[in-house]
Amino acid sequence: MRLLLITFLVVWATICSGQVITGFSGDIGNGSQLSIQGSGFGPKEQSSPLIWDNVESGEFSSAWSSTNHLSLSNSSRHPSSHYSGTINFQGSGGDGSYGYGTAPGSPLSERWFVQYWFKLDTNFDWGTSTYGNGDENLANVKIFRMWNPGSIDENFVIALHGFVGSAPYSSEYITDPGGGRTLHGYMDDWEKGVWHCLQFEYKESSVNTQDGTIRVWFDGDLALEDNTIKTREDYSVLKRPFIVGFYDSWNDDNSDRDDVYFDDFYVDNTWARVEIGNAPVYSQCTHREIQIPNSWNDDSISINAQFGSFPESADLYLFVVDGNGNASPGYLARGDGEPDPGPPGEPGQPTRISGP
Question: Which helix (H) or strand (E) holds 259?
Fold first, then answer.
């Protein structure tokens, strides 16, 4: 019965996606070269992502507009990693501390894919009050923001609001932006001392139309999907990511440390990408690692493989995601088993964030 279920899900994914992996050459491992063969991968204008920053050079990428308050840390995410970025939010003033933002000279685009890993230190405490009421530090933290060039006010933001215990998303300075649903449970489900992965797919709306898209994955779970947001009302100009990481919007007057670590930032102006996961169906993976392409054609892709934090014994599946966000069926790249993917989820429905 399990084999029949897996077969059905893989066949159904093939029908829905249109792209398929037929083989590969090379080894899955950190830094190894892998050539993927198949069909229907679609176009990718620039093979490599706009930003891939794993800080392994011992420096932050020059592509960021700012790494304000960030410093290097040797709190590595996996055995092949040596560095990560870190912030201590203690004593942050003004607009607080933040991690990364794409440089002002980076391109504007209709679609963006953003990923980063983070780890909350055991000393990290979320704020729970409104501003000026005693526990506002880390009660208003932006985790993703799209920004216009110049002086245009319209922008899109996802914020962690400790004073209401949820993470609303909104298009600011826009009338009737749609949406209204939120990410829930981050205070309880984002386990401290453990690395977690956030992934975002963003698509601009048509001007004055509620047809934009935001999708958010937390540790492989599709935690939010909304295809009815309005991100542009009075301007046709496109945006670029501005906040990629944590931005503490309110002051910290406390004396205790609040440390957070970041690693493996990936930013690109297309949804097309390659990942490896631990299940044969993309939506059933509980752990995925982004791969770094260096050539991309409709029938072949070459990647600089990133084994990441997968254990040596894990069965691994390759996925190609096209520019519309459709994932191919998983292709077994290592191992000889097919783990039970579990029951299919309910497509298109926002779900509560769950733990790892």
Answer: strand 259-268
153: closest CA among 175, 168, 174, 170? 174
Sheet holding 300-304, edge to edge: 20-26, 33-39, 300-304, 292-296
**Ranges in the chain annotated CATH 2.60.40.10:** 2-44+272-334
Of 52, 109, 146, nearest to 269 by C-alpha is 109
Half-sphere exposure of 126 (CA within 13 A, CB side): 24
Across the strands, what pairs with 226? 214
d(CA 264, CA 52): 7
pLDDT at site 178: 80
Residue 130: pLDDT over 70 = yes
CA distances 287 to 2, 195, 222, Å, are 21, 11, 12
Q: How far is CA 353 from the centre of its chain?
A: 14
Whether the pLDDT of residue 349 is over 60: the answer is no
What token pair was written down for 339? 């783990």
How far is Cα 356 from Cα 352, in angstroms, rounded to an integer?
13
User: Which residues, in sequence order, are bridge partners of residue 318?
Assistant: 276, 331
Nearest to 211 by CA among 181, 231, 233: 231
Query: Which carries the bigger pLDDT value, residue 213 or residue 100?
Result: 213
Q: Does domain 51-268 have CATH number 2.60.120.200?
A: yes
What's the pLDDT score for residue 62?
Answer: 86
Q: C-alpha distances in angstroms, 9 versus 5, 68, 189?
A: 6, 45, 28
Instruction: Please give the full DSSP string across 271-337, using - where no structure is assigned.
Output: S-EEEEESSSSGGG-S-EEE-EEEEE-SSEEEEE---TT--TT--EEEEEE-TTSPBPPPEEEE-S-
Partners of 99 in beta bridges: none
CA dist 356 and 349 (Å) reads 20
Q: What is the CATH number of domain 2-44+272-334?
A: 2.60.40.10
User: Which among 158, 142, 114 is positioned nearest to 247, based on CA atoms?
Assistant: 142
Between 187 and 206, the more confident residue is 206
Q: Hey, is 52 helix, strand or coil?
A: strand
Identify the DSSP state of 343. S
